[in-house]
Structure formats: structure tokens, C-alpha cells
Amino acid sequence: MGRTIRIFDTTLRDGEQSPGCSMNLNEKIEVAKALEAMKVEIIEAGFAASSPGDAAAVAAIADIVHGSTICSLARCVEKDIDAAWNAIRRAESARIHVFLATSPLHMEYKLKMTPEQVIEAVAHNVAYAKSRCSDIEFSAEDATRSDLDFLCRVFETAIKAGATTINIPDTVGYMVPDEYAARIRYIREHTPGIENIILSCHMHNDLGMAVANSLAGVQAGIDQIECTINGIGERAGNASMEECVMALKTRKDHFGVDCAIDTTHIYRASRMIETITGVSVAPTKAIVGANAFAHEAGIHQHGVMANRETYEIMTPESIGLPKTALVLGKHSGRHAFEERLNELGYTLSKEKLDKAFEKFKILADKKKTVKDRDLEAIIGVAPVSGAERYTLVNFVINSGNSITSTAVIKMKKGDEVFERVAASDGPINAAFRAINKIVDKNIVLEDYSLKSMTDGEDAQAEAIVKITVDGSPMVTGRGVSTDIVEASIKAYINGINKFFMD
Ligand code: KIV
Ligand code: ZN
Question: N or C end of the chain: smaller count of CB under 10 Å?
Fold first, then answer.
């Protein structure tokens, strides 16, 4: 049996904690289920001590997900370890991930601890975590700017205290591949006890080398890659899971390792993260970008038609990209609708399917043909029904380039109906102002984007808003419609509903 590289997904922790990527409980659960379906070995579901919401999400995922180990991050202090353990204790397989910084910069300026105090804290807190949970990961934050011999001492201490996985993060994305590989080899040779330990890498992408560094780590003996879907994460992001996994699989001849991930779920997981966070994937992004499997140049198209391998090193099907763009229309029945969704990788509960079919029928009346991207737009990742505080009843907009725009918005909250009017320079802002009057909160629009989801004159528009409500963390709202104003209004209301749901 060859070596198998484990995938530790931190989309819900390192990914989610980056600005503009926050998710609510339902969204986190959906993502965790998608990761489980992909056969991710370890899901870092959150940082339980960071907030009650995070602790609740980690606990919910620990209850629901059975095929993956569920992990919570914890600083190297007892109260964090207790919070992590409380959140994951019901998981079928649980891991506590304890971290402490080891670089001179972090120890002096952030921790205000001496190297000896760091060693003591690791010894004490890793042992404390071990008294709760058998599976313990220890990370030396900023390991790649730490003194190598000190790092080996810290790791030896963590191993003696019970750590089973040792993580060597490139917290600030500073490494180049051969340098990282050399560090891993040094640590393997100079850390007593490391031979029985799972070694992990966790690379950030500040210099655009997170994936290359992870793969260099694999060649130097790393057993686990920490990564995120679409590479979301702090600053320039983390190593992208789809890129790491497809590199290992496509170049198995080179790396000589196995990886258990079911890659046919990649496309769907990527779209899910894009939809939930509102952070778009660049068209040229490897593996999941819209152009990743598109052949535009005539000479390439000709080659691909003769033999796909002329210009394709991976097949679109291998990442779950639907092969044929089957078209549905207003005469398509519920069965055809459901079957196409299944082919696209979506299995919906009856309740969600009913709602989605309703939306499909409305859309099919407006559009001649409904394509896969339309279906994805309909499905999105909707908040659970019944939990929506406000719903749009209707709206009227009056706008032009020689008048002030006005908007009349009618919305429902339970059985109560509200109607307000507002004016502004543009129709969308006027609509948002009218909604603000109804909700009566301090809603600040931090970001707004609008894009076409499909092609043609009757294309569906997707609006993404990022708002804060009374100084809350940023909330992402999404709305889809063939009318751009309606898409924007729906996105704004969706964001407000998500705020009230959290
Ligand atoms: O980047 C980092 O160092 C981290 C640790 C907490 C593992 O995210
Ligand atoms: Zn990180």
C-alpha cells in the first residue's frame, strides 16, 4: 500500500474567518455535508472559543456529520480547549487542534512570552487537551519564520504531551517550495518521536505559492494537507483544496501518493462556497474557474474534437462538471427537473425540492430555456424555509436620468404588511433606503455586485450584497432574478434575514 495524503479542510475555520466570507449555521452545515460527501478526512468546523455562534456550529456539525473527523481550533489555554471539547465531544471521531506561535516576532510582540514559557505552555496544554480527547493536533503558528532547532524542541514537547498530528504552518505565506521541503526534512531528522506522528502542512498564499509549497511538503514526507475550497482564507487565502487534490491525482506518476477525495464533488462544492460567501472565483482559476475547461482558440477546439487529451490533462467529468448542458423549459415536469438536479449533484429534501420547483416554473414562464446555470441559480444555498423574517410582496420603481429615483417597497413580516417610499440618486439605492425604513435598523451597504448568471437576453442576474446591521459582522445576501432591480432587492432582504437568523 502506498502513502495516502489526508485532506484536512479548514474552509469553515480559516476560510470562514476571513473578511466577507462569514457563513450562518445552515450554510456551515451544508458545507460540512458537502465536505463529508467528498470524503474529506478531517473537517475543521470552527474555533469554538471564538464565539457562541461558532461553538454552536461546531457542535451541530459534530452531531450531523459521521464520515469525517470533526475538529475545533483552540488557543493554547485551558478555556479554549474546554470550549473545543464541549463542541466536538459528541462527534463519532473528534479532534482538538491546539496552536501556539513559535517565531521570535510572535513570541516577543504578540504573546509576550519567552521561548521557555512557550515550551511550558505547550507541555501543559497539549497534555490537558489529551486528557479530554485522544486525537490531538498541535500547530506551531508562524513555524516557517521560527528557529528550526527551537521548533524541533517545541514539537518534541507536544509529542511527549500526546499530540498525534504536528502541523507546520506557513502562516504568512513566506515560503518557497524547496525551502519548505528542506525544513520538513530537517524537522523529521531532528525531532525525537516524530516518526510515529502525522505531519501536516498549512500554507497561506501571500506569494501565490500555497499549493506549490503544499506539494513540496508532500514530497518531503508530509501526510496531511490543510486547505480550503476555492482557496478562501486570510489575506491571499489558503492552499486551494481542488488544486492540491487534482495535482496529486493528475500527477500520481510524479507524487506516487493516494488521496481518498471523491473529486466528482469538487465543482459543486466550489459553486456552493462561491454562492454562500459571494466571493467569485476568477474565470482563469485552476480547476474550477469558468474557463478551466473551455477551449476558445480554434486550433485548440480542433485538437480537442479529434482527441481531448491534446489540450486537456483532466476531464471536466472528473470534477463533476456536467457533461451535456441539458435544457429544460416550461413543459418540463417535476421528474425531469429533479433528475437534472441529481445529475448536477444536488439531492434536495422534499420541502426544498417543492420550493425549487415552484421557482423553476416561474422562471420557465419568463425564459424560453432553462439551463444548468439557471438551475444552480435557483438552488443556490437557500436559508431554511420558515426562518425568513421578511419577504418581498412587491415593488414599484420610478427612475430616469432626469429625475430623482423613487422606490415603493411592500414587505411582509409574519402577517404584518409594511409599505415605505424612499428617494435616491439611483433606483437600487432608493429601494434599499425604503427597506431600511421598514426594518428600522442601521444597515450599512459595504459591498454590492451584480453579474449575469447565464447568457442571452433573458439571462438571470445574481446580485450579492455585503451589509452590516447595527455594527454586526458582515453578512452576505444573494438574490437572483431576470430583473436586476428585483435581484438586488432580494439580495438585500436575504442579507437582512440572515442577520436575524444568526
Ligand atoms: O495560519 C495559521 O498558522 C493557522 C494556524 C491556527 C494553524 O491558521
Ligand atoms: Zn491559517
Answer: N
Q: Look at residue 354 and give its three-state secondary structure.
A: helix
Is the beta carbon of 75 within 6 A of some atom in ligand 1?
no
Distance 197 CA to ligand 1 centre (A): 19
Distance between Cα 479 and ligand 1 center (Å): 33
Report the atom number in ligand 1 closest to the C-alpha of 169: 3
**Are 412 and 356 within one domain?**
no
CB 130 within 8 A of CB 161: yes
Strand, coil or helix: 190? helix
Query: What is the whole-number distance in angstroms between the Cα of residue 229 and the centre of ligand 2?
Result: 14
Do 273 and 374 lie in one domain? The reply is no
Q: Is 170 in the pocket of ligand 1 (CB under 6 A)?
A: no
Is the CB of residue 177 less than 8 Å from the CB of residue 212? yes
Q: Does the Cβ of 141 fall within 6 Å of ligand 1?
A: yes
Give residue 59's domain range: 4-277
HSE-CB of 175 using CA atoms within 13 angstroms: 32
H helices present in 191-333, as ranges = 210-219, 241-250, 252-255, 266-277, 298-306
109 inside domain: yes
- Domain presence at residue 49: yes
- The verdict on 63 and 89 lying in the same domain is yes
- How many structural domains comprise the chain? 4
Q: Is 14 in the pocket of ligand 1 (CB under 6 A)?
A: yes
The response to whether residue 173 sits with its C-beta less than 6 Å from ligand 1 reads no
Distance 279 CA to ligand 1 centre (A): 21
Ligand 2 centre distance from Cα of residue 370 (Å) = 40
| Length in residues, the chain | 502
User: Are 93 and 134 within one domain?
Assistant: yes
Locate the ligand 1 atom nearest the alpha carbon of residue 14 and give its number: 8
CATH of the domain at 227: 3.20.20.70
Residue 288 maps to a domain: no
CA of 13, closest atom in ligand 1: 8
* pTM higher than 0.85: yes
What type of residue is 75?
A: R
Q: CA–CA separation, 303 vs 312, rounded Å?
A: 10
pLDDT tens by residue, the chain, 502 residues:
689 999 999 999 999 998 889 899 999 999 999 999 999 999 999 999 999 999 999 999 999 999 999 999 999 999 999 999 999 999 999 999 999 999 999 999 999 999 999 999 999 999 999 999 999 999 999 999 999 999 999 999 999 999 999 999 999 999 999 999 999 999 999 999 999 999 999 999 999 999 999 999 999 999 999 999 999 999 999 999 999 999 999 999 999 999 999 999 999 999 999 989 999 999 999 999 988 987 666 666 677 778 888 888 999 999 998 765 567 888 888 888 888 888 777 888 888 899 889 989 988 888 878 887 788 878 864 444 446 899 999 999 999 999 999 999 999 999 999 999 999 999 999 999 999 999 999 999 999 999 888 777 778 899 999 999 999 888 999 998 889 999 999 999 999 998 988 6
